[in-house]
Amino acid sequence: MASLSGTVTSDFDPQLYLRMHPDVRLAAADPVQHYLKYGRREGRSIRPTLRHEKLLSFIDYNKLGLEVGPSHSPICPRSRGYKVEILDHLSQPDLKTKYAQHGVDLNAIEAVDFVWSGQRFKDLTRRNHEYGWVVASHVIEHTPDLISFLQGCDDILQDDGVLVLAVPDKRFCFDYLRPVTSLAAIVDAYEAKRTVHSAGTAAEYYLNVCQIPPGKAWTKVTSSDLRIIHSVAEAKSAMEAARNSVFIDLHSWCFTPSSFRLILHDLFTLGFIQSREVGFFDSNGGEFIIALGRKGAGPEIPRTELALMAGRPFSAARGVGEAGNVVLNIGRRVSRRLRRLIGRLGHAVR
Question: 211: which residues sit within 8 A by CB, 6+ positions away?
């Protein structure tokens, strides 16, 4: 951490400080001097703690970037000085019309450079390996073909560029009852060149998305806590739309942090993508954050450990997280040993 004297300690990263605080960068201030004179007193972080700080910690502000699907909540708005182009499913006027009755800040919706209708990003943007970074917050779970999305981002990124993703953790959102997405499902969608969600995906989504009382996802959940959002009739209607190749906006994919990291590792190993994990922030507030790039080294833990963690997403009955499963298992082994020891001591006393 930073020193309380007139210097900073070795863990102070000047470039990270500038990435986390774009107003300092725009002012062309020296990061060390700014922190010592103003930042420390203002309570500015020197390491990512807040959501936007984590997302922005991977970005090189000096390079042009692309934000995919920012809608009314951009991560990197031009109004704050970011060199960014915007790709979304609607134009700025159409987005403002769409969200007019949603109680959001319509002024936060910035001009859209590229309106996406399914084409490859490099064809739409006419940029081939030119962006230094791409940011997509809560986007990938909506894509019918995840592999093509990742490949499309790689097409437009520089060799040392990064794709930064914020991904909902299915354990803490309306996907609570839905199964974790498998590698097979993702590969099959790619092989089928899927451009709309399948009828099966629509059925599974509409029959299982639910509302959970705030905070309940972390504790024991019972059926009385849950409310299924859609009806069987809505599920049937969505299935019919999917059969007719109509795009329905839904979560096609459901991940936990470990399941997603494992899938990315396997997609790279199998040759579907050329990017690997650059950095990762575990779930906080119902989402996790991960960055990918060609220069990434991959996850820092063995695949078998990731697979074990991914295979033990927390139980809806116990409300235990992935890491918690490891603790529980250790605890059970210790408890068994203690019981055996106590039993032997009892026999010895008798």
Answer: 174, 226, 227, 229
Measured distance CA(304)–CA(200) in Å, rounded: 30
Output 107 or 24, whichever has higher pLDDT: 107
Burial class (CB in 10 A: 0-12, 13-18, 19+), 116: middle
**Which one of 3.40.50.2300, 3.40.50.150, 1.10.260.40, 3.40.630.30 gives the CATH number of domain 52-311?**
3.40.50.150
Which DSSP state fits 169?
Answer: B
CB 83 within 8 A of CB 64: yes
Query: Residue 48: is its pLDDT beyond 90?
Result: no
The band of 221, judged by pLDDT with boundaries at 50, 70 and 90, is confident
Angle at 179 between CA 175 and CA 180, to 5 degrees: 95
Computed over every residue of the chain, the mean pLDDT equals: 86
Domain ranges of the chain: 1-47, 52-311, 320-350
* Strand 287-293 versus strand 157-168 pairing type: antiparallel
Helix (DSSP H) and strand (DSSP E) numbers for the chain: 14, 9
Q: Is residue 163 classed as helix, strand or coil in its secondary structure?
A: strand
**Alpha helices (H) along 137-272:** 146-156, 183-191, 199-208, 232-243, 257-269
Query: How much is the pLDDT for 184?
Result: 98
This prediction has a pTM of: 0.79
Residue 264 near residue 273, CB atoms below 8 Å:
yes
End-to-end CA distance of the chain: 57
The span from the CA of 177 to the CA of 316, in Å, is 8
What does 302-343 look like in DSSP terms, one character per residue? -HHHHHHHHT-PPPTTTT--HHHHHHHHHHHHHHHHHHHHHH
**Phi, psi for 153 (deg, rounded to 5):** -65, -40
44 — pLDDT class (breaks 50, 70, 90)? confident
